[in-house]
Amino acid sequence: MFERAHRLLPAALALALACGDSDATTTDDATTAGSTDGTDATTSETTAPTDAGTGTDSSSDPSNATTDTTATDPTETSTDTDPTDTDTDTDPTGGAPLCTLEDSVCGLVERNTEVINCGELALEDPDADWQAAHDCVLEAVSQAKGFKLIHQQQGLDSNVGSGFAGQDGVGYALYSVFWDDWGVDAPPLGNAWARSCENIMHTPDCAPVSNSICLLCYPSGEETQICGE
Asked: What phi, psi does 131 have (nearest 5°)?
């Protein structure tokens, strides 16, 4: 969930495409191919009994042997192994929507826009990374730039995490996010809640270290569930 290859930007706050959508072209092509094979097999199957029924001497007509072979046409079995038919059966979510911390934070900024990626921190990351992520957020806020940060937190019996996001679309909006997967490791069918922030500031008397990003959303708005069931 919190990948080690993260992740933090240099102090120059270089821009990164942090919240883009994935390309589904390959999946669409595979689905189309499977659908076409199924149509061809159905056509050949219905042609065979039609030809056999129209001939009055069909019982002795040697041409019937040719049409009978269509019953064992290997193309007919392709529809039985069409991967598109088993997608829903092997879907680990059972059709329920995924709710990840990454998607929750990205959902608060404009999709396919360049935002500053301040980091994706795991508990085992060094304190210096937490300090750099902390400073990245404060600098982005001071310049009213779009940004995102997600970080793992220590949970008791589940995976929990928090995040911050800045959206520089029409006006400038700030958010804090809290996420909990309720102990379900895979898939992440958790819940996420967000609050709007008038400002994001350094927490007084706090030094950024693992499990403590030392950022304060204040004043904050009402908490709203944005992801999960």
From this structure: -65, -45
pLDDT tens, 93-127? 455 567 888 888 988 886 657 899 999 999 999 99
What are the tokens at 154?
């220590």
Q: How far apart are CA 12 and CA 208, in angstroms?
A: 20
pTM to 2 decimal places? 0.59
Q: Do residues 53 and 69 lie in contact, with contact meaning Cβ atoms separated by under 8 Å?
A: no
β-pair type (116-121, 147-153) = parallel
Residue 21: is it exposed, middle or buried by C-beta count within 10 angstroms (0-12/13-18/19+)? exposed
Our CA dihedral for 163, 164, 170, 172, rounded to 10 degrees, sits at 170
Rounded distance, CA 148 to CA 168, Å? 12
Given a contact cutoff of 8 angstroms between Cβ atoms, the answer to whether 139 and 8 are in contact is no
